[in-house]
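ok trying again, last paste got cut off:
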Amino acid sequence: MSLADVASLAGVSPGTVSRALSRPDMVQPDTRQRVREAAERLGYVANGAARALAMRRTATVGALIPRFGGSSFPSMVQALESTLAEHGYTLLLSAPDHARARDPALLRTLLERGVDAVALLGSDHPPAFHAMLAAHPRPCVRLWGAPDGPGPCVTFDEGAAIDAIVDHLAALGHRRLAFIGGRVADNERARWRRHGLLQAVARRGMTLADDAMIECDYGFREGHVAMQALLARRLPVTATLCGNDYLAAGALSALHAAGWEVPRRMSLAGFNDNDFAPFLQPPLTTVRVPIAEMGERAGLYLVDALAGRAPAAPALLAAGLVARGSTGEAPRG
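nice, full thing came through this time. structure:
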């Protein structure tokens, strides 16, 4: 089955078929649909190796997105993949556990596959990564990294997001807080969140003592165990902030099991606004982070760069408080 057969069935030229399958953004939607239907009907599969050799491109983008327990990265990756697919690019994803996230072999493998562009999670990468990208230049974008890091980055204002949740708790009369967060040694986002929280609490004259902070992996079970540990310490805290909603959901379960009413006896808040947050009991107060939008914007940035359009540096995205039933006025006395 040849490209000419697809062209004949779709009623277009072979060149149009080639563009519809390799650069769909260059073809009108109705024509593109006819070509795809014809290709599917005939079972046509393009010779990717030959096309890559002729075009000197593979129409692939490599992404290195490490896993950190229960996280929101799948939503970001899905948005990145969907955006790239709309413009004819296939995403090659490397998703190692965090212990292998800095292994240069991960990026080297993507480059050896001939990816046209690269997307990296965060800003904290080993020198070998920078050396490889300098030796093999191609469009590269970072997601959820430091805005002032090397190269373009699609991210949001972490400081403003933390200020929003701390302001919310302060307005409810909370002065002594606890924090359950990710491990700062191997997760730059966990480091930013903890550092930003300590600064925000200090500016408002609130208290977040060392023994009221617990580091753990991100996950429901980990949040449950961490909250059990906090309750065992009998600390005079009235609100607990969690580094993400998975931790908060686990913490909420531990509070229920211990007979602590939320929010009458303890207010609880999370981060990210995962899809389950409104359905917890009580519904979880959290900060909505533009996770999917980061993936989409990163995809569009790379598409523009690959098309030679010199995209502007990505602007900071907005994050905002979502107040629900898990936070309330601080207990008196």
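cool. The chain has a mean pLDDT of 90. The radius of gyration is 24 Å.
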